[in-house]
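Figure 6 in text form: structure in, sequence out.
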């Protein structure tokens, strides 16, 4: 499980905006850039090349 303090300081590496933790999908989501960064073994992978594009439908949830 990701540490709450870590979640509070992590920002999107592209826009420096806030991230939302999607626990079931194990992703950190940047709503502004529509990118989801994976969390592997409780370690956020904050690389643009590793991120996937988030659909508008996913953002509306």
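Output sequence:
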């Amino acid at each position: 499980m990701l540490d709450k303090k870590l979640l509070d300081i992590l920002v999107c590496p592209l826009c420096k905006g806030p991230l939302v933790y999607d626990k079931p999908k194990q992703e950190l989501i940047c709503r502004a850039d529509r990118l989801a960064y994976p969390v592997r073994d409780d370690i956020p992978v904050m690389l643009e090349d590793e991120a996937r594009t988030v659909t508008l439908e996913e953002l509306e949830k």
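Caption detail: Residues 41 and 54 are 21 Å apart (CA to CA).
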